[in-house]
Amino acid sequence: MTVAVPPPDPARTLAERFAVHAGAHDRSGAFPHANLAALHEAGLVALTVPRRLGGGGAGLGRAAEVVGRIGTGDPATALVLAMTLLQHGLIHQVGSPWPRALADAVGRDAALSGAFINALRVEPELGTPARGGLPETVARRDGDGWRVTGRKIYSTGAPALAYGLVFVRTDEPEPRIGNLLVPFGAPAIRIVETWDHLGLRASGSHDVIFEDVPVPGANAVDLRPPAGWQAPDALQQAWSCTLLAALYDGVARAAQDWLVRFLRERRPGSLGAPLASLPRFHEAVGENERLLAVNARLVRGLAAETDAGAPPAPREAGFVKVTVTENAILAVQRATELCGNAALARANPLERHLRDVLCARIHWPQGDAVRAAAGRAALGL
C-alpha cells in the first residue's frame, strides 16, 4: 500500500534556511531583503489575502503557525511578515472601514509583487498612541486629497514597505484622528536608519519622515473623533496578540531545541556522560516543555475563537499575549542559566534568542497596561 507523504511545509523549510544567516543579520543589523523575497515566492506574504485576489485565504490560525515557525529561524523576518499578515487579516473583513476597491488593490499587490504593509503609529513625543494622546503627524486638506507631514519611529520593515498605514490627526477645526494609507513610492518620504536595538536587530524598524506627502482622498481609510479610538477593537486585538505571541513562542522553541542538543552533546570530563543524563536537567527541560505546551494551547485557542467569528474581549487577548510571552521569556532564561558561559557566547544562538525574546515586553499590549485595565474592571472603576 502506498502511503501518501504530505508536502513539506514551506514555512518550516524557510525557517531552516533563514536560521543559517540569522546570526549574521543580527550582528550587522542588515535588513533581510532576500528572506522577504523568499516569503513572497512561497506565497506567504499574501497568506491572509482572500483567494479571490490571488492570496492564500488563510485565517488567524494558519497565520500564527507560519509566524511562529518563521520565528524559530529568524524572528526579525517573522515580525515584518506578521505585521503584513495582520493588516490583511483586518482590512478584508466584512465591516472593515476600508473602501473595498482600495483594500482589493492592496491585497492584489501583496499577491502579485509581495508588497509589504505596516501600521506606522509610534512617534518621538507621543510614544505608543494606545496609551492616549494626539499624534503630531498632521494630515492637511489639499483639494480632494491630503498632505501628510510628520515623523514615525519604530516603523518595522521600513526598507521593504510598499504601504504605510499612517496614524495622523487632521488640521480641521475639530481634529479627527485615524489612518491614511500612504504608498511608499510617493515623493518626500525619507527613511532614517535609526534602528540599533538589543534584539530583533534585522527588523529595519527605522524612523520614517513624511514631508508634505500627497495622499489621495480615498486613502483616508478610518478617520474618527478622538473619542472613537478610546475602546480597543476586539478583532484587531486578537490578531495582534495572537501573532506576537506566536512569534515569541517561536523564539523560545528555537532556544529549547538548542538546549536539548547542547545537553545531549556536552560530555564534561568530570562526568563521563552527557549532561542530559543528570536528573536536574530532566526537570528543567520538562518545565520548559510545560510552558511551551501551555503556549501552544493558548495561541491555538485564541486563533480558533477568532477564526470562528467570536474574538474574545480585548483584555482576554491581552492576557494570552502577556502569558505566552512571559512563558517564552522564562523558557529562554532557564535555558541560558542551564548552559552557563556557552549560552552567552556569541558563537552560539542562545544569547541572540535571549535578546530577541525580551523584546516581547515592549510590544503592545504591555504587561502593566493589561494588568491595570483588568484591575480597574474588577474593582468597578
From TrEMBL:
Keywords: Flavoprotein, Oxidoreductase. This is Acyl-CoA dehydrogenase. Residues 13-97 form the Acyl-CoA dehydrogenase/oxidase N-terminal domain. PANTHER family: ISOBUTYRYL-COA DEHYDROGENASE, ISOBUTYRYL-COA DEHYDROGENASE, MITOCHONDRIAL. Residues 123-213 form the Acyl-CoA oxidase/dehydrogenase middle domain. Residues 244-363 form the Acyl-CoA dehydrogenase C-terminal domain. It holds the Pfam family Acyl-CoA_dh_2. Gene3D superfamilies: Acyl-CoA dehydrogenase/oxidase, N-terminal domain, Butyryl-CoA Dehydrogenase, subunit A, domain 2, Butyryl-CoA Dehydrogenase, subunit A, domain 3. GO terms for molecular function: flavin adenine dinucleotide binding; oxidoreductase activity, acting on the CH-CH group of donors. CDD domains: ACAD (cd00567). It comes from Methylobacterium radiodurans.
